[in-house]
Amino acid sequence: MKTIVYTLFTLLTISLISCKKQTKGLALNNTPHKIKHWSYQGETAPKHWAEIEANTECDGLHQSPINIIHTHTDSVKNRSDLKIHYSPSTYIEKVNNNGHSIQFDFEIGDSIFYKNDIYYLKQIHFHEPSEHKINGIIYPIEIHLVHINKHGEISVLGILGEEGNESQLFEFLESFLPLKNGDTKYIHKKIDLSSLFQHSKDYYTYNGSLTTPPCTENVNWILFKKPIILSVEEILKLKNNMPVNNYRNEQALNDRTIRYHY
User: Fold this and answer.
1) Taking the CB of the first residue and of the last residue of the chain, which one, N or C, has fewer CB atoms within 10 A?
2) What is the mean pLDDT of residues 55-62?
3) Active-site pick, 62, 85, 100, 132
4) Alpha-carbonic anhydrase domain location, by residue (predicted)?
């Protein structure tokens, strides 16, 4: 009798374990549980990032982008705190369509000297239309040049773009497009990005965040006042390789100060 009871108990235990394994990872409606990932539309749009992305600062008080009202800035007649060291011998390592933007990654070469430290260019990517506004104006495109120092701290150069004549630099960058979502092309070719800064010397600075999750704060933002010029066709080519309206909505300035360097 004890043998029969022990056998029945063993069979019941095996059956329960089997059921548990089969139901692991399934929701109550017997469908696979899907982890939501941030995007620019619907239930995973920017206004929901703080809810769906764990361990982010997307609901912080010093977030980006912002609307820069020129008359509300502190003017600083000094541009010496920023030095741009861009060389024609810097190499693009690869280009990737990460589903959120087109991103070009760089080998070590270009850098900026800012706040008494060196920040090396890691990557550039694009937003259409622009994320930052100047006096409420939204530009067709915004370029982010992301720099990181040896401590992992971030400084971003932001450049706005408007429609006009063709840009040789963008013709070169877009020669590696189209690129499907998730695809990567390895390039290892020289590029001179210094032309991006020939149009304007004046810029705004403020303390903000990354404009995509994890929305890390304490990012140094340097946004150039005057936009660069590129053609409508060049803007459209980038747009066709990225999600529609891949921008984050304007964030509150709160207690921050924006400085205008001229």
Assistant:
1) N
2) 96
3) 100
4) 36-262
